[in-house]
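Title: [Solved] Annexin 3D structure

Original question kept below for reference.
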Amino acid sequence: MATLKVPAQIPSPEDDSEQLRKAFQGWGTDEGLIVKILSHRNSAQRELIRAAYASAHGEDLLTSLDKELSSDFERIVMLWTLGPAERDALLAHEATKKKVTSPNNFILMEIACTRSPLELFKTKQAYQARYKRSIEEDVAYHTSGDFRRLLVPLVSTFRYVGDDVNTALAKTEAKILHEKIADKAYGDEELIRILTTRSKTQLNATLNHYNNEYGNSITKDLKTDPDNEYLKLLRSMIKCFIFPEKYFEKVLRLAINKMGTDEWALTRVVTTRAEVDLQRIADEYQRRNSVPLDIAVSKDTSGDYKDMLLALLGREE
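Solution (posted by the thread starter after getting help):
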């Protein structure tokens, strides 16, 4: 369930674009007005505002925002103003601009595993349109070894989205997964094939059979070396498929609770999930930490950045 709150009646895109233009004029930027407008418009409405702004002022709204804003507030407003596919394309590109490290591997996996097949396809289209390359070739170029063998097919596939399950196949592939993990063949092509190509419904059946037949969840069996970054990625990938709210809760918990807030991770989760399932993530956060997510965010952030976060979380200061 989304946390985004859009009023029943809103101004026209033309009126919103003019109000945003006014926010940029004068002696100082009116950040409060920017939050008031953009944090209460869905992706389709924000797209219309951008079109109206460009038509009226000959400049992309993103360009104006970039000129007027700074720091964490600029990043959250810029990411939020982008459409979902453009935003994911940007996040993926940032993750592949340099030698891919652990956090960037997780961002690529997150995009591939928590978006629908059609959403991922649109992201790849946006990526090619903007960067004149494919996500697949950039991921392949900036990764190596087991990470490349896993991530390239993961961002390449278009999974079946139906509810059909082949029970016999689930049993067979659960056995394959168990054998490969028992042999510590974590980069085996069969293990990767199953995890990167099967539908989420089929994969869920396979993992349920794995748990019932072999007495452990697959994620527990993948904890033989807790510090192994590749195994961490595999475990997180499976969590994204089965319990995405638990995956995102952990990302937020680590972003907020460690020494010094990880604003980039916090911003990424809030902007990408506010129109999708941020309420479920917030519920999981409160269950896990006994603190409401908006209260935790409020204590850990400040200023216009905090106001934008709280608005997207469905709470106003």
